[in-house]
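User: Batch of two.

Assistant: Item 1 of 2:
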Amino acid sequence: MRIRGAVLEEVGRPRPYADSRPLTVGELELAGPGRGEVLLRLQAAGLCHSDLSVVDGNRARPVPMLLGHEAAGTVQEVGPGVTSLRPGDHVVATFLPRCGECEGCLTHGIRPCVPGTVSNTAGTLLGGQRRLTRAGQPVHHHLGVSGFATHAVVDVRSLVRVDADVPPGVAALLGCAVLTGGGAVLNTRAPQPGSTVAVVGLGGVGMAAVLTALAQDDVRVVAVDAVPAKLEAAKALGAHVALRPEQVPHSAVRAALVVEAAGNVRAFETAVALTAPGGTTVTVGLPAPDARAAVALTALVAEGRSIVGSYLGSAVPSRDVPLFVELWRSGRLPVERLISSTISLDDVNAGMDALADGLAVRQVVDLEHE
């Protein structure tokens, strides 16, 4: 079938992306679902720094590639062997499929799925297949989803069913921003009543961590970012303290759990400095592969502190997405407040500029009207 999508043509084009246009929006061919795969009519997709990191070259991926990994839609057709979903079901796509059998999956979220990581790097679905072509030439999948499109074929192990009452924009954010930020709060060192949680970096992932911490009983939340508008947004969500990075060394505030969600060295070092004795720094941001940070090792030993890496919030999507849906449904996790704006597929290059400039928490591509 013919679909419409945004394909990354070349890595590392100069900014502004609205002018250099690394993403071409146009028609592609999408083959039907194979064994264990599902055809989706996509409804919404979020713009995430993991998309931007492919555009700017911080994450090496093969091109051409149909980008987008944070998406939601409805099932149109299921391939052979799929029994857990049926046409009409609403689903969240997650960018880290889980085979359920490898040594990574056996860690219950602590480590990524091994074959899932291999397929994501290669630009294929979990089964090793590609279902996208353009003018007869193959187009790579992005993290098993390729959500910047009207339709997608996705391995069923990359999907989680949700009820129809979850709006598409909210459902899309559950698959990446909320799983990553919220999962970092709940799956690494769950906050105890009376404790303080800090979040450094207030993009979509960081703000999701803020919301998740606020959803816990009797937890004080500290928000840190260099952009004043994001600090104001965090306070509007309910954060108790808002700090610029340069204020952290001079502040008496320290947290038992600090989530670093910016993906740069300064943010990581700020997060470590903000961590209380006996506390845990959880880093979920993905900086450039050659990034290195300076950490005072003596403080880790003498103060009993921990540094933990967390990929996709150490989440198991089939376990954690329903948990976050229930928090949203109860009103304790207002995910819709993370959506800065809704854009069209044609605006995706300009959207990457806004993301790079730190001007948005989460932009959502409205695919229902494409």
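Item 2 of 2:
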Amino acid sequence: MPHGNIAIFIPHVGCPNMCSFCNQRTISSTQSAPTAEEAEKIVAGAYSRIADNEKQNYEIAFFGGSFTAIDRDYMLSLLEAASLYVGKDKLHGIRISTRPDCIDDEVLSVLKKYGVTAIELGAQSMSDTVLSANDRGHTADDVRKASWLIKAYGFELGLQMMVGLYKSTEQDELYTVQEIIKLKPDTVRIYPVVILKGTRLAELYLSGKYKVMSLDRAVELCADMLEKFESNGIRVIRLGLHASENVEKDAVGGLYHPAMRELCESRIFRQKAEKLFTHKGSYTVRVSPKSVSKLIGQKKSNLLYFAQKGYNIKIVQDRNLPENEIVVAEEERNVLKIT
């Protein structure tokens, strides 16, 4: 069943320190934290717009700040406002995001009481060197301990990671993926780094002390991550920052693209197809109708790539194929398939 969020952003509130990359007001397009009354109005308005027959699994989602680190009375007021709608036919729970070092038994008991169903942790990296270099204020072991505790209490666990942070190598990125997989989260968000005005990363970048990988290399790396997570049964619910005027206006560098996931999925299909092309020539490639755009690539990038490599392809839509499967035939003789 599709999932939907009624998102309420709480920028910076509760964060004990300023991470090197963080400018939540730009990311969320929000300048001030909402009151409990304002949060309730957001939920009520969104609830009224959900059609009675709409088959989606909705949650109220508090994003942006470190929810469990905000003033306790304020946190409880937000939870009370949201919990008025939890359990109704359209809303099944509350999702929050927070820091790994702001999770313990006491706070999890409170969250459980108010109908919180999912907790996302900003892990960002599982390298202590990278975490320290980016002013995270917690360790990789904090991520592990918080994750185990969240799962023990029966919450859905989500982990967020960033790609291309200051001092992070490609080996660090792949190690982070491996360590996250070991924690068996239900969901993951992958955020290639975007360097925003007013952040320490921006200072490092503009001074030349911090260099970022190319977007093409980031796409290749994130495509590999996407495959690894999904092959281990972990849903990647976001890849790249939401497209927004604020982010595009305030970005001074980094790995931002308004359709980052589309680029990565197209790269995966390109790699799958190329493995099946045995030599230069003409091929018929069959894919699900839902995957045609992924095979073609954004702005026909995959078709141009194949042509440059000497592969002339004809795409045929096959409704019987799963979305992730490709079938290639060379002159209708040798049929090859990859999933």
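The mean pLDDT is 90.
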